[in-house]
Amino acid sequence: MKERVLVLGADGMVGRSWVDLLRAEGVAHDAWNRQQFELGNPDSLQRLSEQASWGLVVNCGAYTQVDKAESDRATADQINGTAVGELAACVQSQGARLIHYSTDYVFNGKATSPYPVDAPIEPVNAYGASKALGEQLLQQSGVRALLIRTSWVYAPWGKNFVLTMARLMREKPELRVIADQRGRPTSAQQLAARSWALAQVCDTGTFHLTDSGECTWHKFATAIRDELGLSTPIAAIPTSEYPTPAARPAYSVLDLSAADARIGPAVHWRSSLASVLTQAGLR
Ligand SMILES: NC(=O)c1ccc[n+]([C@@H]2O[C@H](COP(=O)([O-])OP(=O)(O)OC[C@H]3O[C@@H](n4cnc5c(N)ncnc54)[C@H](OP(=O)(O)O)[C@@H]3O)[C@@H](O)[C@H]2O)c1
What we know:
Order of helices and strands: EHEHEHHEHEEHEEEHEEHEHH
CATH architecture of the domain at 5-159 and 186-212 and 253-264: 3-Layer(aba) Sandwich
CATH class of the domain at 5-159 and 186-212 and 253-264: Alpha Beta
Strand content: 15-25%
Bound molecules: NADP nicotinamide-adenine-dinucleotide phosphate
Strand order of the largest sheet: 2-1-3-4-5-10
Number of helices: 10
Structural class: alpha/beta
């Protein structure tokens, strides 16, 4: 693919991974952070319309504060929903293609086997509902798009579970981590690389991209501790002992078979974890 790429939300975990990837691959691109392109801001959209020099627009910007969304539903809906519809219409009018990210939290968490891409949408929290609205408006826009759902994202930078746990394990004598929510941790770098690979072989469609394997938050935390060579005790607790404003799906393992069939199997989350901890200078 020779077209110029525009990355929006370029300062986030996934956005930064995209920019690193495109630079490493020698792909012509522009990277706009929130200051340069604000989802929901008409001036930003106008600027994108005027320049219109991209074949592929990758939207990594989003309202990602899951708990805050419960008391700020209108803003979450505006950024993750309405603004995504407007962006999609703008990209469509330019004849360009869009990659947009959604979440495992659009599902209800009651399944006992991985969610296929066409599983019914039934979010259990405001963030999930706002992302579901974005999916719907994107599809209604008619834009050529890859809609990619992912889960439990982390990177060597940004605010994420891995870096938070690594810090807390050194600060606290003991940790308590939820053991009854199950999902698939995903390296933002793997996500960007596999999204790019998918974009080479698929024009449009809905896909799930995560690292392979699955675990609970407790098992994830234990793996982080073991990779760091620490011995901090980590108690396994039920969700009921760690109440949060937003409900979380108990089971949000995404079925990866559609993407695997096109670009091969994903790496296991344990190997991504080791790589990210090394890059973060933590081991
Ligand atoms: N993180 C996860 O576990 C996870 C799981 C499933 C799906 N996803 C999806 O993956 C995508 C990438 O998220 P991420 O993990 O990279 O999260 P992230 O690190 O929080 O990055 C999100 C970026 O969006 C920016 N942003 C917020 N409001 C914006 C607005 N109105 N206009 C433009 N940019 C705005 C943020 O800027 P500020 O920091 O300045 O606000 C931040 O740079 C999102 O669509 C997210 O919903 C993430």
